[in-house]
Amino acid sequence: MQPHTLAEKFFSERSFSLSLKLTVFIIALFLYAMLYITFSGGFLSTQEWRLILYFLYIIIFAATFLCGFMPGIVIAVLSSILASSILVPQGLTFEQLSVADLEIYPFVAMYFIIVITVNWFRENIERLKEQLVENERLHQQARHMEKLMLAGEIAAGIAHEVRNPLTVVQGYIQLISAKCKKQCNSEDSFSLLLDELNRANDIISDFLRFSRPDQPQKSQVNPNEVIESSASLIYGEAMRHNVRIFLYPDADMPTVLLDKDQLIQVFLNLFHNAIQAMPQGGTITVYTGYDKHLDLVTIKVLDSGTGMDAQTAQRLFSPFYTTKENGTGLGLSISQSIIHAHGGEIKVDSTPGQGTEFIITLPLHKLTEEQAGGAL
């Protein structure tokens, strides 16, 4: 075990830095050592030492509050040793102790009571602080979601209104293209116009899908079949970009309650992003697995692309965040919403120059016969 790990285990969790905890603990040990050396030298009377024993309360309090329970116990034990040396005459048995000599027990008891009490208060302070931070985070997230909902409603309204004239323009261009096909030398121009209109329509569809997500139409489906279907759909694009797709399905994969079309959309988006991250070609590898103990299906999509730094990976699922020149920044956000709608999670792990890995986990929900008949 590493020294740093041992130190973290010894100094229980506190919001203070490890260096501060080490410094306070070393100072406490130093003060104890100085007091013990002074006592051994016989420079002070017993009455003066009784007063100094009260000073040890402060050292124990500081060590426990700043460093944690175990450092507080260590200082309390050392303080008890010093108190015993001062208050209990050497060589006396228990029967020979006077009432005055028994004063040692309240001192020792108080040392350990201080440790327990201070540690309890400190843990509650830490817990309260964490709760306040979490409440503030949730509050900020709620405000952010309210803004996104408002933006989504506005975007949905605008997108719906813009799509209608685009559809009309697209229809007339197709009609004109058909009429001019034999007379005009402008087939390439019409194709370009139609491609751009289709791209604009796709962007609008993404906005609508983001602002008004469809409810999953779930049925019992084998995730391996979904991935195979997605890979076959992207196969042509992958071949054109010199990208090979390898599938390693779990042979014992059970069926899962999910929306096949929505999951295909998720994997197509992941495959498409992976292809774009490998301009010189590469590989996409997909692993599926089932954990019987956790009752979870795990799907890993790895590529050999350029990867990304931690800051980019952290913002990857944020709406409208994109690193592509012509991207909308909604693909992965929509994919995350789809996975969440299925009760699952999607995470990303990436290193610059070493590729990217997406990890999807889905809970296994088995339908009863009656539910399965209704879903199908």
From TrEMBL:
User: Start and end of every Histidine kinase domain?
Assistant: 157-366
Question: Which superkingdom, per the lineage?
Answer: Bacteria
SUPFAM superfamilies documented for this protein: ATPase domain of HSP90 chaperone/DNA topoisomerase II/histidine kinase (SSF55874), Homodimeric domain of signal transducing histidine kinase (SSF47384)
- Which EC number applies? 2.7.13.3
Q: Which UniProt keywords apply?
A: ATP-binding, Coiled coil, Kinase, Membrane, Nucleotide-binding, Phosphoprotein, Transferase, Transmembrane, Transmembrane helix, Two-component regulatory system
Q: Which GO terms describe its molecular function?
A: ATP binding; phosphorelay sensor kinase activity
Q: Give start-end ranges for the coiled-coil region(s).
A: 118-148
Protein name stated in the entry? histidine kinase
The organism of origin for this protein: Dethiobacter alkaliphilus AHT 1
Q: Mind giving the lineage of the organism this protein is from?
A: Bacteria, Bacillati, Bacillota, Dethiobacteria, Dethiobacterales
